[in-house]
Design a protein that fits this description.
heterodimer; A: about 625 residues; alpha/beta; Arc Repressor Mutant, subunit A; Glutaredoxin; 5 domains; six-stranded mixed beta sheet; about 45% helix; globular; disordered N terminus; B: alpha/beta; 8 helices; about 35% helix
């Protein structure tokens, strides 16, 4: 139910009072706890379709914060809105893969049918239409979120019929299935989104016995668990590759009564969607892994930070949690072991890429804007609310559960030296078989391209925009931590794609997702994007290549967190691997005159204002 | 034995305030020493409007805000062996480039002129027109630094650069010993 926002005049007063009661009710539901600010704001956004100034005041009063603190959080997340949004908000995924898959036609269909332009809300307040960065559906692009529902494989016809259905009062859920309400949470998820498992490996996506790892862990001492995970060689699967066992050991060694185990399910790196598949198909295994980690480090509370774009998975995860509690493998006295207590709640994000950075993720869970924290101290020493916190990726926890079941030697034997076990690759772009592939570490890019039928690739982006863009002559490189590290994203581009268009898109992504805390990242990425535009317009010369390198080096050296340290990568790796692309479009000066300066376009605007031609540069002046 | 050939220098002020030319005069009595080494060709100092012959050094004050600036600057590039950008306006557009901040408009130049001549709150413009005499050169869409338009060989920073800095740069350049400034000389405070 959506309520119109009042204009503050006397007539609306009873409604104001009712709204305000509803908001205090929401705050009450979250114990008026300022640490639950993100949940409170999400609930208010869901109900009223925006966070009004009055709402912020009411929330501030209930939680004991200032209004400006509430606004700081509300204005940070892109799924929270400070202006009224339509009852149905359609967010079209604006990733480069979606663009290449025909996003423009889809946008046009929605605009035509709904009668509104992208980025606007209809006058009657029924619809909003906007772009959002990668929603993790690159294997079935173009895709969109319609409120909390995801629709994929859009075409211009499909978009039209969706828009028409919504206009004739269909609920977003009805788009998935007319019997949506009768489906189980798992069915609701899989009816909407294909898991697209194209190759199951022996660790995660093959047959997995239920809770076998937890059974073994429950009879081990915590330090034995840590030792086993350490011996397996497991490294974090989110991208950075920190040794998991070492992380757990550090957290366990802290002298504190409270410890936390957090799962980072905020996979926001464009082109990554392997956690989506694990959360759908291996939710039990993930929670099992988290429970094992909790035993290893001595935590009794855990949290799954689920990115806002994956809200359609929330109900499914909750149902798995509930089912595990009734089975006695989550909650108190797990597996009948007195004192083995651990429970998990799902924390929803609200559309902020930066929250995949562990410090920002913790800030977000604390009810703050999702800004990274100054390191050290590291989260394993002082994380959530100042307590030691283990933050691991979804895939990492799943691996840990399997290691406890099958043993460290089994896991260690898979893969290559330094990169043990299997890795999930989410492959998308110009290939015949996009989807998720579970493969041992050490495969070459060329081998992977053969599996996905993407042999005519001209460029492959390994690890998403913060990873490396490689060209044909590097396809023999190996997918390992020591050569081409990746959190899982493999995006394939054929020879007909424009490398600079891709680079500019990814820079615009980083501009959008910079949290704004530090200047090098907030401002520097804007300058980098502008410099790339200069190349695309043909206004660049060789000094602009030096400028790109200098500025990138400054941003990398002076940024506060990983976002700024990796954001120049699309530029640096293409300068390195596609130098001809840049030199082909840079112009050389002739006789000391810059070829990049175009007097005709520089005076065009003035010609129109003065309504005359140039006596210097128009030969026909006066004629 | 004949006197060594004197170097020919030309100067101009584009979109600048003539402050840099004033700063040239701040060289003071050392100008007499300098003038033993150089002849001044085209320059506001001599009021010579066209190059009389090829010059060794061209000194540019100001960036490019209109088509005439571009025309003059290109003329200097064609007629001078070495071009020096003198002062911040020549180097990066300087104060006039403040109008480049109007960037989120479809028609930034018009927006700028309208505020300057029609809608600004502190104006008294009884004609309510934007000046448009046919003799006025067309303005550029934004203010460009000299290096955006032609190759520049040396920069002398400052707003305006001090007479000392200009003198030191010119005399070392004439002696073939100019390799830029050390940090101490050109730091801000």
């Amino acid at each position: 139910m959506v309520e119109a926002h009042s204009t503050g005049n006397g007539v609306a007063a009873p409604k104001d009072a009712r709204n305000s009661r509803a908001i205090t009710g929401i705050c009450d539901r979250f114990g008026n706890d300022p640490h639950r600010m993100l949940d409170i704001l999400r609930a208010v956004q869901d109900r009223f379709r925006w966070i009004s100034p009055t709402a912020m005041e009411t929330i501030a009063e209930a939680t004991g914060l200032t209004r400006i603190a509430v606004e700081g959080v509300a204005s940070f997340y892109s799924f929270l809105s400070l202006e009224p949004k339509g009852a149905i908000t359609i967010r079209l995924c604006d990733d480069i893969v979606d663009r290449f898959a025909g996003l423009d036609d889809v946008v046009k269909s929605f605009e035509d049918e709904l009668g509104i332009k992208l980025g606007t809300t209809s006058v009657d307040g029924r619809f909003s239409l906007e772009y959002t960065p990668c929603i993790g559906m690159c294997d079935q692009a173009p895709a969109a979120m319609i409120n909390d529902i995801v629709v994929t494989r859009l075409t211009k016809e499909k978009a039209r019929s969706i828009a028409r259905a919504l206009q004739s009062e269909a609920r977003p859920q009805d788009l998935i299935s007319p019997q949506f309400d009768a489906l189980s949470p798992y069915e609701r998820v899989t009816m909407a989104v294909d898991s697209n498992i194209k190759h199951a490996g022996e660790v995660l996506l093959g047959p997995v016995p239920r809770d076998a790892g937890l059974e073994k862990a429950s009879v081990l001492q915590p330090e034995q668990i840590v030792a086993e995970v350490e011996a397996s060689g497991l490294r974090g699967c989110g991208g950075a590759g920190f040794t998991t066992g070492a992380k757990w050991r550090l957290a366990a060694a802290e002298a504190d009564t409270d410890r936390f185990v957090f799962c980072n399910a905020d996979e926001g790196e464009p082109g990554t969607f392997k956690d989506r598949v694990l959360l759908t198909e291996r939710a039990d295994l993930l929670i099992e892994g988290m429970t094992i980690a909790a035993r290893a480090v001595g935590a009794s509370e855990g949290l799954i930070y689920l990115r806002g774009e994956y809200v359609y998975l929330q109900e499914h995860l909750e149902s798995v949690l509930t089912e595990r509690r009734t089975r006695g493998v989550l909650g108190t006295d797990i597996m009948g072991k007195a004192g083995f207590d651990f429970d998990i709640r799902v924390q929803m994000g609200a559309g902020a890429y930066i929250c995949g950075e562990e410090g920002a993720l913790i800030s977000s869970c604390e009810g703050l804007p999702g800004e990274p924290k100054t390191r050290p101290p590291y989260p394993v020493n002082r994380g959530y609310l100042g307590h030691p916190t283990v933050v691991n990726n979804v895939e990492t926890f799943c691996h840990a559960a399997r290691i406890l079941d099958r043993g460290d030697e089994w896991f260690h034997a898979i893969g290559t030296k330094g990169s043990h076990g299997t890795k999930l690759f989410s492959v998308s772009g110009d290939c015949l078989n996009p989807g998720v592939y579970e493969l041992p570490y050490g495969l070459s890019v060329a081998e992977l391209l053969r599996m996905v039928s993407g042999e005519d690739a001209a460029a492959v982006l390994v690890g998403g925009p913060s990873g490396t863009m490689i060209s044909r002559d590097s396809f023999q490189r190996k997918l390992t931590f020591d050569d081409l590290a990746t959190g899982g994203a493999i995006i394939v581009f054929s020879g007909k794609r424009n490398i600079l268009e891709i680079v500019e898109y990814y820079m615009s992504f980083f501009v959008h997702e910079s949290c704004g805390y530090c200047t090098p990242c907030r401002v520097g990425n804007v300058f980098l994007q502008k410099a790339i535009q200069k190349f695309r317009k043909g206004n660049a010369d060789s000094s602009d290549i030096d400028y790109l390198r200098d500025l990138s080096a400054t941003i990398i050296e002076t940024s506060r967190c990983g976002l700024g340290v990796t954001s120049p990568n699309p530029i640096l790796s293409t300068l390195e691997n596609f130098p001809l692309v840049y030199s082909a479009v840079s112009k050389k000066s002739e006789d000391g005159m810059k070829a990049t300066f175009d007097i005709q376009s520089a005076i065009e605007e003035a010609r129109g204002i003065a309504k005359r031609r140039s006596y210097i540069f128009d030969r026909d002046y006066g004629k | 034995m004949s006197e060594p050939r004197k170097a020919r220098i030309a100067t101009t002020s584009l979109a600048g305030c003539f402050g840099c030319h004033m700063a040239i005069l701040d060289i003071d009595e050392r100008l007499i020493e300098l003038l033993k080494l150089v002849d001044i060709d085209r320059s506001p100092l001599t009021d010579i409007k066209r190059f009389t012959q090829r010059c060794d050094i061209g000194i540019i004050e100001g960036g490019c805000c209109n088509e005439e600036n571009v025309h003059v600057l290109r003329d200097f590039r064609r007629n001078c062996d070495v071009l020096i950008a003198l002062g911040q306006c020549a180097i990066m557009g300087g104060l006039p480039a403040m109008r480049n901040a109007i960037m989120h408009s479809d028609d930034p130049l018009r927006e700028c002129l309208e505020e300057a001549y029609i809608s600004g709150p502190y104006l008294r413009n009884t004609t309510h027109n934007i000046p448009n005499d046919p003799a006025l050169p067309l303005m550029l869409d934004k203010v460009y630094s000299c290096a955006d338009v032609v190759e520049i060989d040396y920069q002398i920073p400052g707003c305006a650069p001090s007479g000392d800095v200009i003198y030191s740069a010119l005399s070392r350049l004439l002696a073939g010993k100019f390799h830029g400034f050390d940090r101490e000389t050109i730091r801000f405070d």
